[in-house]
Design goal:
Blueprint lengths: L2 E2 L22 H8 L6 E10 L2 E5 L5 E6 L11 E10 L2 E6 L9 H10 L5 H12 L6 H13 L5 H9 L6 H11 L5 H18 L4 H16 L10 H7 L23 H11 L13 H4 L2 H11 L24 H14 L6 H8 L2 H15 L11 H22 L6 H19 L4 E9 L2 E10 L11 E10 L3 E10 L2 E8 L2 H9 L1 H10 L3 E8 L6 H6 L23
Parallel strand pairs: 1-2, 4-6, 11-12
Antiparallel strand pairs: 2-3, 2-5, 3-4, 5-6, 7-8, 8-9, 9-10, 10-11
Helix pairs in contact: 2-3, 2-4, 3-5, 6-17, 7-14, 7-15, 7-17, 8-13, 8-16, 13-15, 16-17
Length: about 575
């Protein structure tokens, strides 16, 4: 698309507005107009209009006759705007008003582009318009710099690239794609991780390679997924015999009454007691990582049926009892290791259908997903550990790189699993870049009965260091199954804490309001003087407007002082 800029109209004194002019007076201009291709844009003032015939007055004092598109908006004499060439045949120019953007009728935008020597096209107009919206300078140097930035951003929208430049974020096509995900509320790391956890078993199931290749692929993926987990000792028949007396088996976990805090009458104590024993004395106390908790009875039975034909697993007293049932106290990690070792040891004798039956088994797929959840999701109590989130991101990024390398080496670099791993890693890279300037992190949480995504924003004053007892604000956004969209805004000054909970539905509002005295008592016990409010309103959090733009660095492109703070996570 091309645009011809002809400037302001206060110089159009050669013809009286509204007076038709002889054809000879527009001959030279007509010659130039003939060169305009359909789609070209130029600027003109309506000097005369009757029906579909119009005479446009240009900056150089010349006029041009043209025919308006039948469906064009109604124009008024004296009106100035841009026009787009619809057709140009046999000296007859058909035009229509150009309404391609908010800045299309702003001569300042075109003059700015012209002064910078940049093409006056649709993308250029959008660029200057976006810069003006962001209150950025539109000098020639600024436009040239932004033009280079936009070229580096690939096919991303101009508005996105201008906003990223305003926020001092690095510009690449990948970063721009992530920024747009955040703007469009499709950024959740937990959702991308869930896709990956579903994708690993599906990828193994879809493989059609030889038996050794399939088993080796599974072994390498298991190694990547379990390398960061604590080493678990192997379970032997002797361990089982020792366990009959009530001991805790290596590779298993067991609940004990002493594990539950003595909190007589407390809501917390009762809740933990219910988790451990569900109110049923006849039910074995399975903990979250045990097979009995990870798999339903039907999944355990189906997996046992498949595993009986795999190597010597059926003869392993640590895996099966004398009745052919799985040891429900084994951890998911232990059983995955057992299966992996048996597959490797018997890869020369197993049939492809046997291997595929394991990979396609819902129980085995659930085990793999649970092993991934163990190390990729954070339980609230784990947040007390220093650098827990940083360690999570480092581990996750390392494992994504390893999975991507493995898929490239096996010719699967274009698989859905490779795209999922790349999306997770790209999201983490974006958050890392954001954290060079702002304090923001996503927390994939493992809660009771559900997984939830949390966004933690910390607002800081980057123009000057915060005083020891200065004000600090933080914002936590959660999306949960039962409470729904939950926002928690916290403002702290010393030991004074103002907390505002916002919920999107009435039931969540009423539930949390009921238990606020418990929270207030907890905070008071920790030495905090709190003011807590609860509101019920529908409010969509805007990552760009509500967080990134709330506390911009001083000066575009300048260096900003970044302050990081440790939180009392008990509060």
């Amino acid at each position: 698309m091309e645009i011809s800029y002809v400037g302001q109209y206060n110089k159009n004194a050669t013809q009286t507005v509204g007076t038709p002019v002889p054809q000879a007076s527009v001959t030279s201009l007509t010659a130039s107009i003939k060169e305009l291709k359909p789609g070209s844009i130029f600027e003109g003032n309506v000097a005369y209009i009757k029906g579909s015939n119009v005479i446009l007055s240009l900056e150089n004092g010349q006029n041009i006759r043209a025919r308006l598109d039948n469906h064009a908006m109604k124009l008024m004499q004296g009106q100035s705007m841009f026009f787009q060439v619809k057709t140009n045949e046999n000296g007859m120019v058909s035009i229509r008003p150009y309404m391609g953007g908010e800045g299309a009728a702003n001569p300042t935008i075109v003059r700015a582009l012209d002064a910078a020597g940049l093409p006056v096209d649709e993308r250029g107009i959008d660029m200057v318009n976006a810069m003006m919206k962001e209150q950025m300078p539109i000098s020639a140097d600024a436009l040239l710099e932004m033009h280079r930035t936009i070229l580096a951003g690939g096919s991303a929208s101009v508005e996105t690239l201008v906003q990223m430049a305003k926020l001092d974020l690095p510009i690449t096509p990948q970063m721009a794609a992530q920024f747009e995900n955040y703007k469009n509320d499709t950024y959740m790391l937990l959702g991308q991780m869930n896709e990956l956890m579903e994708g690993v078993p599906e990828f193994l199931e879809s493989q059609s390679a030889s038996v050794p290749q399939m088993i080796q692929m599974n072994a390498q993926i298991v190694e990547i997924l379990t390398a960061a987990l604590p080493e678990e000792p192997a379970v032997t028949p002797q361990d089982l015999a020792a366990g009959d007396g009530g001991g805790v088996l290596p590779g298993t976990v067991q609940a004990a009454a002493s594990d539950i805090p003595a909190a007589a009458g407390s809501l917390e104590g009762m809740f933990l007691s219910e988790l451990a024993d569900d109110g049923d004395a006849s039910k074995p106390p399975f903990l979250p990582n045990q097979i009995g908790a990870v798999l339903t009875p039907q999944l355990r039975e189906d997996l046992a049926d498949v595993l009986r034909s795999t190597g010597n697993l059926v003869d392993n007293a640590a895996v099966f009892d004398e009745n052919g049932r799985l040891n429900n106290q084994l951890t998911a990690r232990s059983l995955v290791d057992f299966i992996n070792r048996e597959l490797l040891a018997n890869q020369g004798s197993l049939e492809q259908d046997d291997v595929k039956d394991i990979f396609s088994n819902k129980g085995y797929q659930k085990l793999l997903s649970h092993v991934m959840e163990e190390q990729w999701l954070v339980q609230p109590q784990d947040l007390k550990t220093k650098d827990k989130i940083g360690e999570l991101y480092e581990r996750l990024n390392r494992q994504m790189e390893q999975i991507e390398r493995l898929l490239r080496a096996t010719g699967n670099e274009n698989s859905q699993l490779a795209r999922s791993a790349g999306q997770v890693r790209s999201n983490m890279e974006f958050m890392n870049e954001v954290n060079q300037i702002y304090n923001y992190v996503q927390i994939p949480l493992k809660l009771s009965g559900q997984n939830a995504n949390g966004d933690l924003y910390v607002y800081t004053n980057k123009k000057k260091p915060r005083e020891k007892d200065g004000e600090l604000s933080a914002f936590l956004h959660l999306d949960m199954d039962h409470l729904g969209s939950t926002d928690v805004y916290v403002k702290m000054r010393g030991k004074a804490v103002d907390t505002n909970f916002t919920f999107s539905d009435d039931e969540s509002f009423a539930l949390v309001q009921k238990y606020l005295p418990i929270l207030d008592a907890k905070l008071a016990a920790l030495g905090y003087k709190s003011t807590i409010t609860v509101s019920n309103e529908q409010k969509k959090t805007d990552f760009v407007e509500d967080f990134l733009k709330k506390d911009l660095p001083a000066g575009t492109g300048g260096t900003a002082v970044v302050h990081r703070y440790s939180f009392d996570v008990r509060a």
